[in-house]
Amino acid sequence: MLDYGNWVPKKMLIAFLMLTLLFGGLTFLPVHIIVRVVFGILSVVFLLFLFYFYYSYHVFSVNGGAFRKRYSMSWWTSWYGTVKGIRLTLAQALRVVRKGGAFSFQDLFLNKWFYGEIDDLLETIREWGVEEVHFTNTANLVKISRLLRVPWMLGKIGIIYGKK
Fold it and tell me: Which of 152, 86, 74 is nearest to 121 (CA)?
């Protein structure tokens, strides 16, 4: 299997670990008790983020992830940037599909920050000369842990498919 990487970069895990340790250490400074409590709360918040993202990292890892073993990650791609930039990426992907050829994309299509309104996106794709285009919300079709079904991970996934 090709290594398509992981949705959770190791550097992010290290950053949350460092922030947890930093604010945890700051709670022992000889300052006012309210400041120490704030540092303690921040330390706990970053620790919770660390646990969550470590869990996500493990689930999507090539070697240990149950999700990764169950599904091929070749179609789990996430493009970041502006709505216009993301739509241009889709246009480039559709450019190589022959007339009459079928296509299918899976991504966080329900995330309005990435793609805008789904109906507008489908209309834009039709304007690119695509004969037939459909959308299916797959967030609840695939058995995914509730922890991963949050909006910034897999809670807003869908498939756009059709015929050019």
Answer: 86
